[in-house]
Amino acid sequence: MANPLFDTLFGAHAGRATPFLHLADGRTITHDGFLRRTAQFANLIAGMDVAPGDRLAAQVAKSPDALALYAACVQAGVVFLPLNTAYTPSEISYFVENSGAALFVCDPAKAGALTPVAHAAGTRLETLNDRLGGSLGEEANHQPETFATVARDEGDLAAFLYTSGTTGRSKGAMLTQGNLLSNAQVLTDHWHFTADDVLLHALPIFHTHGLFVATNIMALSGGAMIFLPGFDLDAMIDLMPEATAMMGVPTFYTRLLDDPRFTRELTAHMRLFVSGSAPLLADTHVQFEARTGHRILERYGMTETNMNTSNPYDGDRRAGTVGFPLPGVEVKVTDPATGETVPPGDIGQIEVRGPNVFKGYWQMPDKTAAELRADGFFITGDLGKFDDDGYLQIVGRNKDLIISGGYNIYPKEIEMLLDDQPGVRESAVVGVPHPDFGEAVVAVIVPDGDAAPDIDALRAACARDMARYKQPKRYEIRAELPRNTMGKVQKNVLRDDYADAFAPA
Ligand code: MCA
Ligand code: AMP
After folding, report:
1. Which residue's CA lies nearest to atom 1 of ligand 1?
2. What is the pTM of this model?
């Protein structure tokens, strides 16, 4: 096959007038219409001297054109690098520079703030909005609707997704065509997706969940998506009768359950609800089944590996577990000190090997070597155990990571920013339970001297440099941080002390 990922996901549907994207405004884009738009973008970017293997970074609103830009990169052999729309210019500048992107595409409304970023990185800037506009959207209209697909093989890179580290800066996870394709094939099959499915798609498309799981599965199966710009409770309840399946982070499910319109009747015709990206509370699982009669199917994945395990489609979907290794994926639980597999029931670090596991971190051989063993096993940083029936349970993290509403937040990044502010001697950032987001960020500040630091100034500094979802939702002042005998900050003590910070009154 000339370009396995493109040919299987998109090319296979050439000429089909079947629906691919149903939009909130009532429009429908067919498979063929989507392919023709994709070809226009592929012609455009190839004409801008963006060559196969080059990176195209995009911080654009979710829209059919944003998705066509992704498909166009696959067709043109260009490495697609999607970026969270919440990122500030200072966050963006790192990704554009670090990836050496040949082209950076942003929303026209942000072009003013991002032009200096692109200049500094020596990267060409173009724009795209969610209304077929922006320089790229307009230019694409004048391009041919066919494109000679660039040949690739499964080992060639298809995408970079940046993922933060416990220390230091974000790392570009290099994902190959084979990584994405193998996972899309396994999941489509495992979850029984066919051309008859209509997926209610309200996730962002700059992360694995919304792009490589939800979109790739629907592209492969030939089904359709109700493609919402983002999470919108009213629209989701209105449109659910048109769908057969939904994928979401746990916050989607708790918000739906909080709404009395979300009933057994509304979901009667649905065939599948999938949850992932963050732990689904067993309580949510139970409540969901009581309300709707459906058992949510929970699965487990990572940016570096796509999906690793899944509860069964047919069979017992167990609350509080992430199911079994997917076909072709090996999962083992090991002792962090020795790397030896521990017996079932014992807790250890979760390691994963398979065609889904990424190629390494872009230009970071040391970090790659630290997490990806020579034998192909990737050390996830998650802690878990297998039960006697072979279900994997995630019990914690061996990494300092907060997951809030499905977004990963690395405390170190926030602490480094806070520690640089006037009046702050040191800081510690922890995640504590939050009724909507699962976990929320609390910053604990130790003042430098007697005067309390200006919390508004700290908020402003975070707002300037950091995406909103990362910004602490609570600041606490403390004379000192709790430390163990080795001098290490005891974050578990802080998590306990502020455990009720967001408890409902
Ligand atoms: C929004 N806010 C958040 C978050 N989202 N704060 C913390 N965590 C968040 N996730 C902020 C807003 O900026 C706002 O701040 C306030 O919280 C309330 O916003 P709201 O309108 O309620 O938020 P929303 O627009 O409804 O978004 C919530 C959301 C969204 C729908 C849960 O965060 C979302 O779509 N999450 C999905 C993330 C995802 O796709 N993750 C997959 C990663 P203020 O009030 O101060 O203005 S892929 C992955 O993890 C792996 C591979 C996997 O296994 O899938
Ligand atoms: P990311 O690297 O941003 O893709 O986030 C991956 C992390 O999300 C994993 O390492 C887990 O810690 C977490 N995660 C994903 N799915 C689940 C799940 N079903 N239950 C618990 N944690 C999950």
Report:
1. 469
2. 0.96
